[in-house]
Amino acid sequence: MNKVTKYVLYDIIRNRFVMGYTLLLAAVSFSFFGFDPDPNKGLLSLLNIILMVVPLVSIIFSTIHFYNSYEFIELLSAQPLSRKSIFLSEYIGVAASLSLAFLVGVGIPTMLFEGTERGIVLIISGLLLTLSFVSLAFLAAVITRDKAKGMGLALVIWFYFALVYDGLVLGILFSFSDYPLEKVMLFLTALNPTDLARIMVLMKMDISALMGFTGAVFQDFFSTNYGLIIALSVLMVWVVWPVALATRIFNKKDL
Amino acid sequence: MHYFKNIPQALPPMIRAENINKSFGKLQVLRNVSVNLPQGRVVAVIGPNGSGKTTFIKTLLGMVVPDSGTIYVEGRSIANRHDYRAQIGYMPQIGRYPTHLKIKQLFDMMTDLRKENAPKSLDEDLVVAFHLRDMFEKPLGTLSGGTKQKVSAALAFLFNPPILILDEPTAGLDPLSSELLKEKIQREHDNGKLILITSHVMSDLDELATDVLYLQDGSVQFYSSVDNLKLETGEQKLGRAIAQIMSKTAVSSKRAEAIKI
Asked: Rounded to 5 degrees, what are φ and ψ at B35?
């Protein structure tokens, strides 16, 4: 499998877009840590940017890349290779290159300025977020053959997780504000990879007091190692299921 | 079945398709396609646009899975297998490759993928003929359409496979390269390979093909040797022979419809 991955990776790393993405992340990271003497604030600002930019870039770039590689994937499928290994090679190639961009752009500056447990949680959750949105992108791309539809679907997915979902949760909170919703909130958080990443980082900071009673329940849950491991595992599930489903679809798909 | 003439059925079929059906949604693209493709033949797969040529080729390569029917390559069904593709060299109609990869890397990758199944030395005739080595360090994204076509052709022949499937091989090639490729196809024919070609360039097919497989609306209209076709129609040129047969079948099918009414 890695026979193909190697070349996919080599190809993407030379891509200007990925270079630009790396530079953008690095510029944002250095400026946030550089301008603010309090690295805690820098981390928080960085988190907000990461939660928007990383999923967007991951899902859009991966979808475009998949459609642009269609003829190449066809050629590969005329070689003595299984569909599964072709698909996973592509996935690993794209996921690895975007992860590398994230590690260079955010990982290095964060470790320089805030190499604490908080910083490490930020890096890990950003990485998993990258992987899960690449996963979702591959799912969107195998669902339809039409590039425009695929891109639309990818954007809808991003829009949903980045903006709409939080709106829905707020709506639920307001409509049922007379009931104790803390446990429900905990569950709802698990249904959105972006929220999971956000909560994981926030709970490592001392700002949960700002979040009221829900924040306290969250703090109880996530600040323990047990809670962190659960959150990480759920985020891993968000990496695995879309690409697993996409592989199943791709296996039976007519190219 | 009166057109199934003069195909040397005695030879063991390299590829055998049995009752292949395939629909995309409501559109039926292949209807009960059954053919034996023996080794040593150059089969021209022709038909109007949308007649199912490309789908037929893709089913042979496993890119499209038929709704029903079985394809055998060297006697074994290809369903749920991928190893048989080591026996096939495929030249796609459009070659689009990762833009930042160099030609050399593409060749390295392919060699890496297929070396276990291609123990003999590589066939670099076309790499030499097309002077690809001089361009080995160029990224694939900077190549012209014709040069990409040359790369595709060289890759298809590289591993000396017993079956070659060439989708519009000469489209986009300059006259000289086109001749070089045709010479190569002729040589591989002499080596006893099975070669499938789709093309709309009848003069090319006239030079190369031994048999014609004509598809229309997804079914086999006729499958006959070129000599037989020319004999039957009294035409010297393949293009005219086919045109004649097609106009006849068109008339007879209209007549059949008229009788039904």
From this structure: -145, 150
